[in-house]
Amino acid sequence: MARNPERRAALVDAGVAVLAREGARGLTFRAVDAEAGVPVGTASNYFTGRDDLLRQIDARLHVRLAPDPTVIAELLERPKDRSLVTAFMHDLMGRAVRDRTGYLGLLEMRLEATRRPELRDSYTKSVRGDLTEGMEFHRAAGLPGGDETVTVLYLAMLGLILEHLTLPGVLEGVLPGVGVPEELIERIVETVVPDA
């Protein structure tokens, strides 16, 4: 296996782009090589197979879509109330919109996991770990609501992000006078998060 970490990262990012654009069926080493602009056969020197590439894409997407620690620290200086939860949800949506390709790659990983039990197991652990981490963060930060609040927010935001990135017209005008996604995020938080 080749050891150039910068090239490996570029290949993984190319894999994310191919996955988001073509779906899992289009994720071939040849397609990754073409996306990365490297000679044919390069990806096969860095990954033992498609499963290895998919696992590394999963790990990379968690880095790409992770919150900025500086932003989190700044937000945590605010009062621990519903408006802070709203700010965190706006940050989440902003990250998904800024890295639309990464988030679509994440959605494609979910779809591929439904077809491949070996990927389903590792991906389920990865996503469940994110949810558990979100619950722990919510409690440690002293935000209103508990694990149930975080779980319902997770489900609502997952749906909103999915619609906004894939079929944005679905939600336009569904609630008259409520802008998508910004004002809809505020409605979600108002509905789900208890007022302190």
Would you list the SSEs in sequence order as H and E? HHHHHHHHH
Mean pLDDT: 96
Overall geometry = elongated
How many helices does DSSP assign?
A: 9
Largest sheet: none
Distance between the termini: 54 Å
Give the helix proportion (percent range): 55-70%
Rg for CA atoms: 19 Å
Task: Describe the fold and architecture.
There is one protein chain. This protein has 9 helices and no strands. The protein has 196 residues and is mainly alpha-helical. α6 crosses α7.
Topology diagram in text:
Blueprint: H1 5-22, H2 29-36, H3 50-64, H4 69-75, H5 82-98, H6 100-115, H7 117-141, H8 147-166, H9 182-192
Helix pairs in contact: 1-2, 1-3, 1-6, 3-6, 3-7, 5-9, 6-7, 7-8, 8-9
